[in-house]
Every structure is written in C-alpha cells, then in structure tokens.
Amino acid sequence: MTDSQARGVGGGAPDAGRGVPPDAERGVPVEARLREVRSAGRKILVTYVTGGLGWDWLEALHAMVAGGADLVEIGIPFSDPVMDGPTIQEASTRALEGGATPGSIMDRLRGVDVPVPLVAMTYYNLVFRSGHVRFSSLLAEAGVRGAIIPDLPLEESDQWERTSSEAGVEAVLLAAPVTPEERLAELCRRSRGFVYGVNLMGVTGERTSVAESARVLAKRLKAVTDKPVVMGFGISTPDQAAAAAAEADGVVVASMLMRLLLDGGGPAAVGDAVAVMRAALDRG
Fold it and tell me: What letter would DSSP give residue 237?
C-alpha cells in the first residue's frame, strides 16, 4: 500500500475508532432500493466509477445516474488490485497519481445527493489499515451504504460484516462459478444489499461475449436466495448486458465505462453509454 492511500483514514486495529450513530445515516439503502427496482419489473443496472479519476469523476457519477443507473459502485484505488483487469488498473493508477485517497474520495462524496445507492469497492488492505469501525464510519458518513471487498474470504469476513452492518453499511459478497453448493447458500445468507455473481473466473475487463458460466451461476443463485442477484465481470455491450441479466436481476458495467473516461470521452459519453445499456435491459 502506498503512503498516499493511508492518509485521511488513519490506522489501528480492525475495531479501532467509533461507529456512526443511527441518526447520522445518509444515503440510500442498497437492498431495499434494489428490491424496489425488481418489484417494478425492471432489471437492475449497476455502474462503476473510479474515485479520483480526473477532476470530473463526480460529474461522471451524476451522468451515470441520469443515464439510468440504479446503483453506482465507487472504486477506491489500491496499488495491488488483484481482481481488476488492465482498464480498472489503469484507472486506479491514474487516480493514485492524482493524489486520490479513501479520505479524499469520501470527502468529495459528502456533498453528493443522488437518488440511488452508492457502494464502495476496494481491497481489504485499506480496510485493515484503517480499522473496521473507522473505515465503515468513513463510508457511512459520506452516504456510501454498501461495500464490496473482493479479496476478503468468507471464512474471515465475520468481523467486517458485523462492524459494517452496525454502521449502516451493507457488506456485499461475491459468488464465483466454481463456488460449491453449500458455500453458495452460506454466502447468499450472509451477503447484504445484493449477491454479486462473477460471470467468469479471472479479472475484470471487457470481453467479446458473456460466458455460459454466467447463466448457470445466476440460476444457481436465484435457486437459493431471494436477495437481488447481480452479475458482473466482462459486460461490455448492450447485448451482453441483456444476456447476462436474463437469468439474474441485473448486471454490473465497469471496465467499458472507465475505458471511455480514460480515452477522454468525458462524463457526457459515459452517460450516453449508460442510457444505451439501460434501454437494452428494458427491452429484455
């Protein structure tokens, strides 16, 4: 971890710090809102933006919401993003070079008012370095009501799940195509907000097609949970989004949107791309 990543979040043991009192909660709850979207007969569209990627990353966030995103993931950059492919890695590197830290990203989000949930995506090194209570409080105070920590194993996540829940932050867990049935059921039971289904084994990134494993995993997840099931990794086109959502409640689109920003497309181009994805999901 770089020194710049640690600034603004402090250090200490996993339970160091203080929690957020219930009346201080901000932002939109994750699972309740996604259930509303599903009940309305719509597929859930989750988009992603790397926090600190350029001066206008918040404009990109607003453009995603205007384009029809139901939830936005906020990537908190980390120097060793083991589950991210080249596009998200490049976005993280640029954000870190620009001085982005967990604290600076959350400071910017404190002034944001959007009608959809915000969920942080980062790696456990940052959570541990800050301390579970302090990190979950940092998110909650900024109106971020969910968190995805992809490198935290299920066997070691009890404390984080408990602490984040106490702060009003829903801990989203990931399921992979090779997850055995018993573990899949346990993962679904403990996940909060939604269950994140990983379309394929490997890292994030744009793909030419959606793997058959995505359809199979979505059906397995839907068979064991009523929580929203959202599929991600490798969704790059409207047709792929519609295909991945066929057996699930929705999809995550990330690398394709970050590639637009990295190539200079700007928030308007991102908003247009999200609107096209939204239309494809609505057509079914």
Answer: S
